[in-house]
């Protein structure tokens, strides 16, 4: 009882730095407005209004971000909302990355030209396989709730990369995950696959977040607080039991690695990437990766840097497993979306190398953030291309159907070739620069053997990218093969954005690299 | 009674939940096992709050309850929609996506 009284007297309203958190507030506020519009507007107006609102929100949030980033802000960043959110240079970089990637994803999600009516089901409650379902597949109109769901997920991601304590991080993790579970189950065609992907993602995601939460609880028991800096202080020098610290760390990291699709916690990735509607897969592959690795970087750097010699070996092993699984299993895939999913598992391994390369000058952090940015743009464009190759019952994702694609559509095949080369890390593409900066940071941090393994894994992975290129250029097209849809403006913009960024950052990466290296995490 | 017993109970409940997720077939039961894991965490949060002499852990337990409720809403909706198609909530039947 005395405890309660004592606490009640201390409470005072925390200071809120509105300018710094404006981008997150804009996104989450617009998501709420968007839910309201869904309830009030007649059905035929919703798509246009929701699309305009989403795009205006993203532009507005980016504007608020630029305004704050160029203003006279403290060099090391500010912690606001009673220290729950840290707005520092890495936060701003990751926010900007997330907003621009979400812009591309929203364009893919909103597109109604590739699939008449859009990639999403008209009414999620209709049972797959029924008469009504066949009717909705040909009707125009889609479940426009996808826009508020996307904005909520984006708001969660932005909070996740900036959260300075583990409770905020957990809430942000759920805010970003729950809308994604729903989005996965809303495909217009192949609805059973889509629903199955949603169930798998949901059950495994909830399982992983329970692990994350138990880790939070144990670390709270260890440090007496869930603030990242308090955990660092507690781990710095106490006689407390290390069991709590390392058990907590292990469980926490399992939860984070699951979200980031790092092998051996990748089991959901291929299924969910294949089953989910392709625009959602693009959003998940690009933005969730950025958010999850943003969180991993912050947790490892701020809370666990001074215990790194204890845990580094474990994550070293995880990175090796992830790269090997991604590269080897990617070879055996026959579906384009699953192949890209395994490639993302391999890329997660490369990103983890950058995340555990903790050098005092923060080189590993800036290299990993650069890699996240380039990987995100390349992936969005790649999934944009995948959504274009179609036959009468939807997307033709089986690799055999891609044979001879260059003869039917030279431009699409050329762009896809370029994107695959970027994923493989060939010079003149951003993928090469990304791998180069991550690997050089890792060598500086004394991880040279890991870099050798990573180079071998990249070489193996390059084989399955090249196999697709060979298939597209040197095989004869099947007579009843798929056609390549001419995309409307939205998909064209999204693919162009991804491909141009991939090219430009492959040739002139200095500007973004400098920006990624401007500051370190607030601790 | 020392608080350690509560921590052990919480670890036990968490393990039961985790094993349940791995061995049970029905999606609803799997989901209930996840909820059991979350509630086991609540028990340790409250116990640690008692040990540390601060209220943070109890506040966190409230946040966890809210999140668990939100998760139920989303989860049951997803499980319902696949159940209506398949007339079965068994996770073994969801086998279209593999390899």
Automatic annotation (TrEMBL), chain A:
GO terms for biological process: ATP synthesis coupled electron transport. GO terms for cellular component: endomembrane system; plasma membrane. GO terms for molecular function: NADH dehydrogenase (quinone) (non-electrogenic) activity; NADH dehydrogenase (ubiquinone) activity; quinone binding. Its EC number is 7.1.1.-. It catalyses: a quinone + NADH + 5 H(+)(in) = a quinol + NAD(+) + 4 H(+)(out). Residues 163-459 form the NADH:quinone oxidoreductase/Mrp antiporter transmembrane domain. Keywords: Cell membrane, Membrane, NAD, Quinone, Translocase, Transmembrane, Transmembrane helix, Transport. PANTHER family: NADH DEHYDROGENASE. NDH-1 is composed of 14 different subunits. Subunits NuoA, H, J, K, L, M, N constitute the membrane sector of the complex. NDH-1 shuttles electrons from NADH, via FMN and iron-sulfur (Fe-S) centers, to quinones in the respiratory chain. The immediate electron acceptor for the enzyme in this species is believed to be a menaquinone. Couples the redox reaction to proton translocation (for every two electrons transferred, four hydrogen ions are translocated across the cytoplasmic membrane), and thus conserves the redox energy in a proton gradient. HAMAP family: NDH1_NuoN_1. This is NADH-quinone oxidoreductase subunit N. It comes from Lentzea xinjiangensis. The lineage of its organism: Bacteria, Bacillati, Actinomycetota, Actinomycetes, Pseudonocardiales.
Automatic annotation (TrEMBL), chain B:
It is an enzyme of class 7 (translocase). One of its GO terms (cellular component) is plasma membrane. Keywords: Cell membrane, Membrane, NAD, Quinone, Translocase, Transmembrane, Transmembrane helix, Transport. It catalyses: a quinone + NADH + 5 H(+)(in) = a quinol + NAD(+) + 4 H(+)(out). It is found in: Cell membrane; Membrane. The chain crosses the membrane at residues 6-23, 28-49, 61-83. GO terms for molecular function: NADH dehydrogenase (quinone) (non-electrogenic) activity; quinone binding. The keyword Coiled coil does not apply. Its EC number is 7.1.1.-. InterPro entries: NADH_UbQ_OxRdtase_chain4L/K (IPR001133), NUOK/Mnh_C1-like (IPR039428). Pfam families: Oxidored_q2 (PF00420). NDH-1 shuttles electrons from NADH, via FMN and iron-sulfur (Fe-S) centers, to quinones in the respiratory chain. The immediate electron acceptor for the enzyme in this species is believed to be a menaquinone. Couples the redox reaction to proton translocation (for every two electrons transferred, four hydrogen ions are translocated across the cytoplasmic membrane), and thus conserves the redox energy in a proton gradient. Belongs to the complex I subunit 4L family. NDH-1 is composed of 14 different subunits. Subunits NuoA, H, J, K, L, M, N constitute the membrane sector of the complex. This is NADH-quinone oxidoreductase subunit K. It comes from Lentzea xinjiangensis.
């Amino acid at each position: 009882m005395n405890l309660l009284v004592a606490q009640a007297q201390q409470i005072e309203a925390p200071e809120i730095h509105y300018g710094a958190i404006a981008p997150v507030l804009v996104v989450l506020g617009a998501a709420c407005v968007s839910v309201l519009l869904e309830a009030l507007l007649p059905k035929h107006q919703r798509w246009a209004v929701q699309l305009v609102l989403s795009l205006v929100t993203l532009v507005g949030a980016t504007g608020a971000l630029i305004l704050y980033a160029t203003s006279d802000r403290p060099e090391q960043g500010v912690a606001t909302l009673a220290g729950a959110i840290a707005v520092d240079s890495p936060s701003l970089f990751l926010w900007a990355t997330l907003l621009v990637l979400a812009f591309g994803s929203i364009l893919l999600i909103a597109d109604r030209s590739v699939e008449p009516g859009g990639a999403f089901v008209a009414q999620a409650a209709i049972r797959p396989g029924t008469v009504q379902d066949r009717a909705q597949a040909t009707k125009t109109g889609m479940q426009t709730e996808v826009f508020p769901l996307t904005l909520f997920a984006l708001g969660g991601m932005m909070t996740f990369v900036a959260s300075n304590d583990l409770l905020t991080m957990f809430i942000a993790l759920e805010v970003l995950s729950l809308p994604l579970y729903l989005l996965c189950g809303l495909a217009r065609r192949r609805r059973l696959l889509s629903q199955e992907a949603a169930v798998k993602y949901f059950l495994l995601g909830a399982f992983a977040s329970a692990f994350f939460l138990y880790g939070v609880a144990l670390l709270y028991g260890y440090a007496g607080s869930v603030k990242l800096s308090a955990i660092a202080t507690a781990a710095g020098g106490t006689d407390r039991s290390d069991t709590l610290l390392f058990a907590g760390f292990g469980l926490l990291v399992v939860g984070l690695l699951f979200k980031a699709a790092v092998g051996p916690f990748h089991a959901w990735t291929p299924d969910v990437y294949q089953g989910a509607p392709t625009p959602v897969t693009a959003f998940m592959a690009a933005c969730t990766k950025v958010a999850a690795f943003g969180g991993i970087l912050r947790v490892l750097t701020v809370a666990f840097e001074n215990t790194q010699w204890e845990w580094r070996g474990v994550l070293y092993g995880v990175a090796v497993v992830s790269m090997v699984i991604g590269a080897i299993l990617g070879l055996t895939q026959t579906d384009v979306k699953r192949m890209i999913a395994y490639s993302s598992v391999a890329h997660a391994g490369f990103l983890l190398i950058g995340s555990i390369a903790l050098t005092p000058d923060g080189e590993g952090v800036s290299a990993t953030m650069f890699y996240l940015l380039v990987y995100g743009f390349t992936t969005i464009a790649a999934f944009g291309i995948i959504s274009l190759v179609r036959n009468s019952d939807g997307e033709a994702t089986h690799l055999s159907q891609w044979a001879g694609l260059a003869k039917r559509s030279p431009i699409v095949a050329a762009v896809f070739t370029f994107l695959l080369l970027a994923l493989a890390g060939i010079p003149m593409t951003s993928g090469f620069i990304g791998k180069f900066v991550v690997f050089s940071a890792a060598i500086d941090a004394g991880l040279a053997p890991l870099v050798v393994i990573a180079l071998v894994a990249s070489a193996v992975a390059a084989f399955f990218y090249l196999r697709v290129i060979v298939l597209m250029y040197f095989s004869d097209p099947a007579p009843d093969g798929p056609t390549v849809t001419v995309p409307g403006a939205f998909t064209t913009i999204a693919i162009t954005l991804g491909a141009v960024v991939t090219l430009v950052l492959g040739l002139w990466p200095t500007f973004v690299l400098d920006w990624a290296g401007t500051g370190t995490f607030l601790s | 009674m020392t608080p350690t017993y509560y921590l052990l109970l919480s670890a036990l409940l968490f393990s039961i939940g985790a094993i349940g997720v791995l061995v049970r077939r029905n999606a609803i039961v799997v989901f209930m096992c996840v909820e059991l894991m979350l509630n086991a965490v609540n028990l340790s949060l409250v116990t640690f709050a008692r040990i540390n002499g601060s209220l943070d852990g109890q506040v966190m337990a409230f946040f966890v309850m809210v999140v668990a409720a939100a998760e139920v809403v989303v989860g049951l909706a997803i499980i319902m929609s696949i159940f209506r198609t398949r007339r079965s909530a068994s996770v073994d039947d969801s086998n279209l996506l593999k390899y």
